[in-house]
Amino acid sequence: MLKDSPALFEIDRPENMTTQEYIYQRLRKSIMLGLTVPGKPITIRGIADALETSPTPVREALRRLSTEHGLKMLPNRRIVVPQMTSIRFKELILLRVTLEIHAACAALPFITNHLVNDLSDLDLEIDAAVEKENYNQQIILNQQFHELIYTANSEQVIMPMIESIWLQLGPFNRIAARNIKEFYVVDHHKEILSALHGRHKEDLKVAINADIKGAVGQLHPDALERILK
Fold first, then answer.
1. pLDDT at 95
2. 24 and which of 61, 72, 97, 195 could share a cystine (Cβ 3.0–4.6 Å)?
3. How far apart are CA 45 and CA 60, in angstroms?
4. Tally of CA atoms within 13 A in the half-sphere of 70 that contains its CB
5. pLDDT: is 69 or 183 the higher one?
6. Do 42 and 81 meet the contact criterion of CB atoms below 8 Å apart?
């Protein structure tokens, strides 16, 4: 990887995927996984050289990510992953809780036993990734777990908003993954699965809230400030 290029997560590229979409998806996944460092400049030339492409599709991909708040253009025109503050972090956690509880409750009437079984299998894969300390796999599978629940409602329109929050919390998803054994005394996915199986809305709300607020979401403010520095 070149000096001015961020770490880019490898993804499959379907034959019909445009270069701009490919670059966008790779960068987006990399930010969500916390592979990019907040405050470090991301240059169009660095990415273009690393991916052996022209600057034009890179520029468009960066523009899209900026509109989703995954990247920020500074006054000197440098492009960076935004720095996090404790106030912004708490706001993002609160928004994530609000949006995902809404999405889960809206999806509850569409949950089937077959889907609950699929989610249970996926949760076992997450457990295995935790044991192996495979952070990338853990984060990816965790997002798939939540997305499968919310998209059970075929009329949902909330996933782009939820994914925007995931994007902005990317570097701290990785902190959560590294600390999951310390903070997750209860496996809240099991609580979510139980609530889905019984079609219990109030239990589902409690479980989603606890799952999101676990790990870094419940850090003491002083500890959070040290991490964010």
1. 95
2. 61
3. 13
4. 29
5. 69
6. yes
CB 208 within 8 A of CB 104: yes
> Topology of 19-80 in CATH?
Arc Repressor Mutant, subunit A (1.10.10)
CATH of 86-228, one of 1.20.120.530, 1.20.1250.20, 3.30.70.20, 2.40.10.10: 1.20.120.530
Nearest to 104 by CA among 16, 30, 215, 209: 209
d(C-alpha 20, C-alpha 25), whole Å: 9
Residue 110, amino acid: F
> Given phi > 0 = left and psi -120 to 50 = alpha, else beta, which region is 37?
beta
Distance of CA 26 to the CA centre of its chain: 13
The residue ranges of every structural domain in the chain are 19-80, 86-228
The two three-digit tokens of residue 102, written as one number: 């809404």
Q: Give the residue carrying structure tokens 């609950």.
A: 116
Residue 17's pLDDT is: 93
pTM to 2 decimals? 0.85
**DSSP string for 171-213:** HHHHHHHHTHHHH-SS-HHHHHHHHHHHT-HHHHHHHHHHHHH
| The two three-digit tokens of residue 115, written as one number | 């889907």
Helix (H, G, I), strand (E, B), or coil: what is residue 141?
A: helix
| Mean pLDDT estimate for the chain | 86
156, 168 contact by CB (below 8 A)? no
Within 13 Å, how many C-alpha atoms sit on residue 31's CB side?
29
